[in-house]
Every structure is written in structure tokens, then in C-alpha cells.
Amino acid sequence: xxxxxxxxxxxxxxxxxxxxxxxxxxxxxxxxxxxxxxxxxxxxxxxxxxxxxxxxxxxxxxxxxxxxxxxxxxxxxxxxxxxxxxxxxxxxxxxxxxxxxxxxxxxxxxxxxxxxxxxxxxxxxxxxxxxxxxxxxxxxxxxxxxxxxxxxxxxxxxxxxxxxxxxxxxxxxxxxxxxxxxxxxxxxxxxxxxxxxxxxxxxxxxxxxxxxxxxxxxxxxxxxxxxxxxxxxxxxxxxxxxxxxxxxxxxxxxxxxxxxxxxxxxxxxxxxxxxxxxxxxxxxxxxxxxxxxxxxxxxxxxxxxxxxxxxxxxxxxxxxxxxxxxxxxxxxxxxxxxxxxxxxxxxxxxxxxxxxxxxxxxxxxxxxxxxxxxxxxxxxxxxxxxxxxxxxxxxxxxxxxxxxxxxxxxxxxxxxxxxxxxxxxxxxxxxx
Length: 432
Fold this sequence. Notes:
Blueprint: E1 2-6, E2 12-13, E3 23-24, H1 26-37, E4 41-46, H2 57-66, E5 73-76, H3 93-97, H4 102-107, E6 122-128, H5 132-144, E7 156-161, E8 165-171, H6 178-183, H7 189-209, H8 216-238, H9 240-245, E9 250-253, E10 256-259, H10 261-270, E11 293-296, E12 301-304, H11 315-326, H12 330-334, E13 339-340, E14 349-350, H13 356-373, H14 380-397, H15 410-429
Parallel strand pairs: 1-4, 4-5
Antiparallel strand pairs: 2-3, 6-8, 7-8, 9-10, 11-12, 13-14
């Protein structure tokens, strides 16, 4: 199970936002640590900094570690500051830590008095600081998308944004993502291909709605080259380990030596002409990995969430997202379904290739490219190359989103190892 715990005045006593003077509730920390040791995922979520804009995440992580609290992730400054929280999955902290019977928890509100629980059928998304621009782009995209495509995206109920903060409430759909169905063993490779095909057809209609005339140099600089450089700088600034590893020309992974990303990147960039798209569209989701696709099996339908809202994109960008999910196994890395050994001393990781999720993703590769090829006028070998190019660029630039700030960074490091392998294999295959 995934447990999300508030911090101040739940796991520690805090007065008037004096976070450095917070006093831990050690009896509660013991209970959280027990859940961690039992294999549950522990997320600490705090509103620290959401009003002031100050980044409290690093100080908070150090503070929690000094208290001996075990956790997987800390989200600071992203929780919306409010006086009352209403959630159908919420349990009042006093009830939870005082071991109140679950039947009582479900009948009473957070204050413990008999009231009705209010279930809010909305989803709140918010961002501060460096992720604000992304969320603002998303809001603008959903609000302005052509009418005939709006039914595939959640409806925005309310939104507000400024230079340093943004949030919106959107319609909630009680539907599973493709990722959840795959990881639960409830989706076969044939279904993965079926839904990928169905979604790609819609995506191509979206791209074709309005084509744009833009310089290929500008296109690649914005969507690929500058993104790569920016994300590498972000990794270096946020992690000492990544700062050091990115300076190396070679890296040994699983006992084999590979050229590092920064070494291969200039050579890939020089081959830009080979990767140019057939056309560029104004409207696109642009982030079609499997956790952003909700599936409605009963009605043979789907919904797309978390669009990037770019001003322009191409369909190979989406092909690469789908391919990095089945070929690069992004879904397994994001969900921690991998094994590592000696993470601080060596670079070794592996997937459980006997697991059903791995097998279904692997088997989906056989037919996915054939399905995607229907939507392109390029020949199959060119489709394969351009799709794999986008996969390589996606994988090498998604790593900062997997940073956990836990001094292990197993997800981010595994994603980095996999991106190095993918980029080396790609360069070797196409003579780069």
C-alpha cells in the first residue's frame, strides 16, 4: 500500500511555521517505520514553503533522517495550504496513531464527531517554483484545445496561476491507467498494442488538425537538444552523485563499459537531418506514457491526463513515448520493479524477466511498431529509427523526475543506466 503522511503536527509538533524547531513524535515515527519495514511505500507530504516559496525539501529530508524516520519520498511545497482537507481516503492523524478501530474511522470525520464524510469527485494538481511553467502550459492546453478533442481530456473545473504558483481542479475519472493494469497483471501484450493503436489514431487526428510551419532547427533545439542540456544541468545541480558521474567519459554498467551520455549526445545531434519528422502539429498530448492513459474497458474508450501542452510537436515524439514504455521498460523503473546491488559502489541493475509485467511489455514489442507504421508515410526502417531516436531522447531527459532525494536515488540511477545502454545501442545500430 502507499501511505501519505502529513508532517507538521502529525509526525512532529510545529508552532507558527518554525520548522527548524519542530519536535518529533517518536511514538508515531515508530509506527510509520513499522509500515516501511513491512514493505509499504511511505510518502511524506508537507505544505512547507507553499506560501513563502522557500524550498524546504532538503532541510526537511535532513530533519526526518535525524529523527530516524524511514520514508521513500518527500513532497515539500506542493501540498495546497488549506484549513480543511476532505478526502474519501483520509484518516484523521489522532485516530490513526491512537489505533482507533477502522469501522469508527469510516463513520466519523477528522474531528471525531459524528458527521457525514464528503467525497470530492475532483483531482487537484498544483506546482511551485521550477515546475510552474509546465503546469501552466498544461492548463492552457486543456482550456484551449479544439472542441472536437476535449472529450478525451479531463474537464478543468477551476484554475489559477501566477509566475511562481499554479493549480487547477479537474474532473475525476474512476478509471485505471494502462500502467496500473500492466503492473497488476491484468493487461496482456495484445491489449497493450490494441490500446496503443487506438490512442495513436486519436493522436494523429489531433496532430493533423493544425499543421505548423516551423524551422527544423528550432523544432529540434526546443524539443530535444536544449531539453537534454537543461536536464543534465538539473541533475548536476540536484545530486552530487550525478554531478560526478556526468563528468565521466565512460561508465561500467552490469559489468560492461559504455560511452557516457554527454559523450554520445553531440554525435546524435549532428545527425539531426536523419530524424526530421514528416510534419509538425500544433496540437498534441506529447507525454503518452502508460500512466497518463486511463482505460475504460466497459465502453471501449480512454481518457488522456497530464498533457504537456507544447506549442508544437510531431507524432514520432509520441511513438517514442510508447516505445520507451514497452522497450525501455520505463513503467517498471518508475514503479521500482527492478533490482539493484551495491548501488553506491557499482552500477548494476536488472529486471525480473520472468514477471508477467515484464513479459507482456516485452511481447508487445513484436507488433507495436507494425501498428504504429500505419500512421506514417515513412518506410518501416525509417519509422523504427525515428521512434528509437525519440525513445533515447525521452529516457535521457526524464531522469530528474525520478529523483527521490533519499541519498540512494535508485530509480533515477536505474533510469540513467538504462538510458546509457539505450543510447549506446542506438548509436551502434545506426552507425553514430
